[in-house]
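User: Some background: our group keeps a shared notebook of sequences we're curious about, and every so often someone picks one and asks for a predicted structure to add to the entry. Today it's my turn. The entry only has the sequence so far, pasted here. Could you supply the structure so I can complete it?
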Amino acid sequence: MPFLKSDIVQIFLFIDIPTFMNVSWQIVRFELKETFSIAYGNYSHREALIITLDHKGVSGYGECTAIDYYNIKLEDFVIKLNSIKTLIDNHQIIYPTVFYDFLLTLELPSFLRSALDCGYWDLYGKLENKSFLELNTIEINKLPESSITISVASVEDQIKKIETSNWSKFKVKCNHFDKKAIQKLVALDKNIALDSNGSFTPEDCIWLQNEVVSSQFSYIEQPMKPDNYSVLDCNLYANWMADEDCQDNINLLTLQPHYSSINIKLVKCGGLTPALHLIKEARALNFKLMIGCMTESTIGISAGAVLAPLVDYADLDGANLIANDIANGSRVVNGKIQVEDKPGLGISIL
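Assistant: Of course. Here's the predicted structure to add to the notebook entry:
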């Protein structure tokens, strides 16, 4: 018996027709507004890998940055992308958490996995005409203010930058421990955090956590090099915050006796999908949370900004540090986070 035209239409409607995408990438050099100095070195620019996931003219964007002190080389990522491009291009567009399971099978470094995961959330939301917040039922009740990073310099120069800034929260970089500098920073009566990038010694940390002065800093981030936190006591005066000690596949239970807070960076945990899981797990263990960033464009900052409603602290100043941003999206203006409510992550290229 032949099919009627109406039967063919009905059959067609019930067939799950796969839709695919195209992945492309480029390496972009971002010039910094001023030299960025931290314990690891001095930087006048950053290079970033920009991922584009496209379906029928709709594009999602992700980003990861080259970091020499983590041995993150974008050229290695390009080689990997060339080897997996066909797998990504031929993958059906499905819900982002399921797509992330696919990414895990590719055994990618967390930085590259994050760029692909964030780009996919951006694409998927745009195709569904829903923002990341809508897709994950995240309400914006209150947003933390972002800090602005104050580079390593003499404490006098750092204080001058703080006093002339329009921001109200500051993260001061250190490359060694200096009691006099700490006393001068505390005397400012400003909202200040310290970030030593692992430059303090165990003796420095023992002194800090036993002195009430350390409680006047909103947090003290990554005081020592990774895996050297055994002397840290989360029950004393310092609000120790893990950064390099909180990366991909971290067991938070091992950090719990030592750190009160963790810095969640998307590139370090592998993207938005694992970050959502990490936030839930960390809350269950009573950690305070910060959403952080690398020195990256509005692409990376827009990805981080959608998690700001779920955390206690924010350090999303990356796009404010570069002179040649390439995108529109969520913005941070003098510390105030303005989350873009457009579909996906709300990212568009300039």
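Suggested note for the entry: Residues 194 and 220 are 5 Å apart (CA to CA). The two ends are 57 Å apart (CA to CA).
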